[in-house]
Amino acid sequence: MHAYRGRLYVSSSGWYSTPFPASELIRVNDDDTWDLVVGDSQRATGGECKYPISGQPDGFENILKAHFWRAEEHQGVLCVGTNDWSWSFRHFPLLHSFLREQYGFDVYGTCGGEYWWPATVNAFGKGRHNFGARTMASTPWGGFVGSANHVRGTTVWRTENSRSCGPLDSPRGPRASARGGARGVSAPQRLIADVQPCGTALSWEPSASRRVRAGKRRSCGTRAFTRSRPAVWVQGPIKTIGSTAATAFVDRDASPGDRYLYHVSAERTSGHASEPSNLVVVPSQRPAATLPRWASPSMRSPSRRKPAVGVPHSGRRRCGPCGVTYARAGSAVIVSARSGCWRS
Q1: Domains of the chain
Q2: What's the predicted TM-score (pTM) here?
Q3: Which of 145, 232, 242, 256 has the maximal Cβ count within 10 Å?
């Protein structure tokens, strides 16, 4: 548990109720209501359907996240560290080759609970035996993370130039500061995604950098071993899928019915790249946005307002709710994603 910006964030783990862990994160508000932050959509007591405000399912779309182990606030950012049991497969050659880049704990950050970015997904590159973010601390000398490691003992990491969050009452809600990122390259923010007939439409707030690239991960899943959950998902390797000079991108190679995780990164002409933007999962756990929903009182607060989605088009073919073409001169964007080998 951790108190952050006037709300209490509470994590849980479902190791003993299902064959695979179901790790979710909720937050309790000061009026005794609660929000599902990360986790599968569910029906609460009284019949209300709870959707994750982040759009992220259990374990950030990965059953290998056994649970969210520690949380700490550093420079205004809520950081959540995981216990990751992917290292258990290191002696199985086929699984090892597929999972090795994900060995080790993850740390995710957010400025308000809705948009989450990965600080690491492999224990800062030392993930073979460092399976858990066991302790975290914020100090004037930097943020510290200590690992759980049964083989070689604990390792402690320190970060000195991590992202920070703006004030909660800013016009568009809390946002990560631009000073984070590699060599001063700020990351694009507030990435959102929508499934369209011509592919997955991505849109984001731009970075000051000259270039941006996009990537994705495809999630591999199976319905075996479980009845209570529709599928068991493991993220595949990262794949760069393109670049653009706009603030939007369409992944036209996305297969209908497959699951993907996307992020975008800014890049200078020198090749120095930013940290990734927030992560989005397609299809999202959140319901599709509608105008009546945008107009409802619960959607009027700055922290919940969503930017309009517009995506580039080619010739007469328009893709996206508005068909807006973006052509910002002097910048480019690179899109990355992970992609999955099972169709729902």
Answers
A1: 2-159 (no CATH), 182-339 (2.60.40.10)
A2: 0.77
A3: 145
